[in-house]
Structure formats: structure tokens, C-alpha cells
Amino acid sequence: MKDAWRITQALYTTKQSSTLNICLGNVSGDMDSVIGSLLMGYYYTNKEGFYAEEEKEELDVTALDDTRLSKFFVPVINMNNSELEARSDIIYHLEQTGVIRDEIVSIDMLDLQHFVSEGKLGVNLIDHNYPDCNQEFLIPFVELIIDHHHDQKQDYPKLKFQDIRFCGAAVTLITKIMFEDEELRDKILDDKVAWLCSAAILIDTVNFKEKMRGEKWDQVDEDTYKYVKDMGGATIPDDYFKQLYYKKTDEETNIKLGWYLLARKDYKNYRIKGDVKIGISTVFIDIRACEKNFGAEAMKAEFDKIIEERELDIYMALTHYNDGEVRRQIVSYSKNK
């Protein structure tokens, strides 16, 4: 998707009447959402026939007409660009796959309200089936949904297609759609794509841990992963899975990120009882280690910042770490208490 940012810029500057089609993961920005948005954008851009067979040179996006530009599906990472640095496992995997960091489009790089006001927006959700409570203005523009979470049963007036079902990863579902497209399959599936999607499937199924079958993952994940291995021969070895998991959960690696990024890592917003807004992050460190390394006052100052910038009533950090046993903690903070 090397043309994504250049085409997005062209949509702003030279083709104001074009529709911006985005493929948007959820705001946690985990491996499944990031890889899922890339694959979804890649598949639907090819399905809509954006790339002409005869084109070999780099595209001159300023020369493309509105109809052509509207066939491009921009994969959008649903977090601020600076916060991608907190996803050490994802950055590492993208580098191994050859995806260039500077070509990724993040949500804060877009003025979505411009396209909303013009009525020129197509929203395609992956790894969630209801927009974040800060993004509910997108509801009238949702056209496609691919997700493995509980169906929120939202009515979308422009919805064309949805695949919402229990499985381990949303990447499983978009990979399955790609594999079952006999017209495009041989053109778009190769070793690179196989390697890209394999990690997301393995991470979300915990490397197909058998005791989690039916709870964390299902047969469709196993079948799709077999498709991936057969199509590209790209079996991710156990040690690579362990590297990714280590980069995500290692205490020292997370501490080096600093509290600013940790407080925004694996983050989601929730609204309860109508108007109480809660922001929740998952932190892979004992909260006592956080306090030791960052200081209680610095942590409190960051809590205040995130509450203000995201207009929260309550901020919560859920810790998940292993000191020989899996342990969890909950930290809740509110300016009003």
C-alpha cells in the first residue's frame, strides 16, 4: 500500500470531489487491527480495479481522475502517528515484511470532518463493528464490516457487506475472503502477504493453544492459517512468535517506551450509563514497577493529560504481567475524586 499517503494527499489537494475510502481498525491499535486494515485496503483496492495491468512505473497521483481515486481504499491505523512507536511488536513485524513505516496513514493525519461535510467518505471497519465513542460521526458512512467481536447490531444506512463471527482474529476473516476470491487470489496472494497475515493470526490465537479452542479461537482460524501456509509456504516458526510476544510484553522494553506511550498503548474508549466516558489501557508491567521507574507524580500528570485530551470522566490502566504467575491489576483515576 505504498501509494496510500500520496493518494490521500491528492484527495485533499487536487481532487476535492473524490470519495475517500478508508479501512479502519479499532482504536486499540493491536496487531490484528493494524495488519487487518492493511490487508483490507490492499484487497478492496485490487478488487475495485484501481491498479491497471499495464502500469509498471510509480503512479502520478495528481493525474488520476476522481473515479480512479475513489477506487483506492486507504488503510488507516486508528491511533495517532506518534503512538505507533508503542507497538514494538507491530513495528518489528512490518519491518520484517517490508512495509515502510513512513508510508502508513494514521488517523490524526486525516481531516475526516472535511470528507464528512462533503458527504464524500466511505468507512470500512475491521476488528470492530461499532465505531469508538469519539468516532460515532462515522456511522452514516459505514459500508463494509469484517469483525470477530460481539455484534453490536448497529443499523448502518449504507452497509453493503458484513462478516461478523466468532474467531480468533479479524485477519482470519479478511484472509479467508481474499483466498476465496478465485479471480484475484493468484494475483494478490504471495509469500509477503502470507507472512504479513500469519503473525496476526498466531498472536490472537496464542499460537493455537489447544486449551483455548472454542474460547479464544475457532476452526476457521486453523483452516485459514492452513490456506496461508499452502499459498505461500510462509510458516512463522515458534521462535518468531515468541519474539513478537516478547516485544509486546517484556517489562524492560515497555519501560523504555516511557509512561506517555504506555498510557496510550492498547487503549480503548467506552461510554457507560449514557454519558460516563472511560478510557482503558492495557499495560504489561506491574504498576509498582511503573511507579518506581516513572514516579507517582509523573504518572498522575499523564493521567490528567489523557483525561483532558480524550475528554474522559475516568481513566483506567489494566496491568497484565507474569512473575512466574499471570497477574492482573486495575488502576482507576478521576480528576473528580
From TrEMBL:
<dbReference type="GO" id="GO:0005737">
    <property type="term" value="C:cytoplasm"/>
</dbReference>
<dbReference type="InterPro" id="IPR004097">
    <property type="entry name" value="DHHA2"/>
</dbReference>
<dbReference type="InterPro" id="IPR038222">
    <property type="entry name" value="DHHA2_dom_sf"/>
</dbReference>
<protein>
    <recommendedName>
        <fullName>DHHA2 domain-containing protein</fullName>
    </recommendedName>
</protein>
<feature type="domain" description="DHHA2">
    <location>
        <begin position="262"/>
        <end position="334"/>
    </location>
</feature>
<dbReference type="Pfam" id="PF02833">
    <property type="entry name" value="DHHA2"/>
</dbReference>
<dbReference type="GO" id="GO:0004309">
    <property type="term" value="F:exopolyphosphatase activity"/>
</dbReference>
<dbReference type="InterPro" id="IPR038763">
    <property type="entry name" value="DHH_sf"/>
</dbReference>
